[in-house]
Specification:
about 40% helix, 12 strands, 13 helices, about 400 residues, single chain
Length: about 400
Amino acid sequence: MPSSTLTLAQRAIKLPESPIRKLAPFADAAKAEGAKVFHLNIGQPDIKTPPEFFDAITQANLDVVAYSPSAGVGPLRESIAAYYQRIGHSISSQEVLVTTGASEALGFVMRAVLDPDDEIIVPEPFYANYMSFSMSSDGIVVPLATSIENDFQLPTPEEFEAKITDRTRAILICNPGNPTGVLYPKESLEQLAQIVQKHGLFLIADEVYREFAYDGLNHHSVLGFSEISENVIVIDSISKRFSACGARIGNIVTRNQQLLELLMRMAQARLSPPTFGQLGATAVYELGEDYYQTVRHEYAARRDLLKSRLDRIDGVLCPQVNGAFYAMVRLPVPDTEDFCQWMLENHRHDNQTIMLAPGSGFYASEGSGRNEVRIAYVLNQKDLNLAMDCLESGIEIYNRS
């Protein structure tokens, strides 16, 4: 008998490959050959997770690792609400939904606001998984170009409005930006608030890098715009703030009760967020400003080192970076997909090389970002310096070959 033909969902087939992880096999091969690989491709900080995180888990003395409430344990939701209150936003624990990382939070929100073929406007370049989350919800990402020459600042209100159709349901921003490191000024956010209010749209703000703002600048959360309180959805996470990526604890904050009810149904369907992650997260949300200042100071120093090294390399353009721990950088090569793979396969500087994230994977517009890379300055300054040595020598040799 002939075997039956198995059919896979087109939704899954069309999902893009991660630009952050796609070159991992080449990095693994370089390591197998004995080379040291500096990972600047992924936002995995080397700063130690606060000991309070681990203490909370060991002191819990659990006999059973049980399901938690679907919205998250009460103490964590209260700690998160208190955190927002400390930074000036009146949020109750009932307006916080704990998720399995910011990824689940984004997936929940996309499914809650997008029907098939609905549109969400996103300034590009953007975090690559925004595309996957939207496609998994049968939604459509409508990219809105920003410019490296303009430090990837938000487009004008007129440019946003030109993209709005009768299928538009939301605008999504990341502030401070991944992959760009841009920090949006209050005036630009006020203009966005006016647009979503005028057109009846949701404003989804990925604010997981909120604490990482440099040069004396302040982060302005969209939670501060009371006139659009029903429109605002904030995505957050402990992954970057507390260097706890593997804990997989994120959250959604919104004052829109109807939306919260829908999100809660999704939370119930997946049962509960991770128990141990919630225990640790409850503790680290109690940390004071001293912790944030120390981490912020370290990332600012790494940013300064990275930019100073990049600015000395002929043909490299590094924009102003005021937040997060990424830089979207233009390299003097025609195709960074090829260059990044070549670095891992062929280039060694003192038996060291680097892994970068090719820029085109952060764009939805065909052909964009081909000569850009995202660099995550998540390594200590010594390693970051060595990684820049690899990059500088690599560019020179690649362009001679």
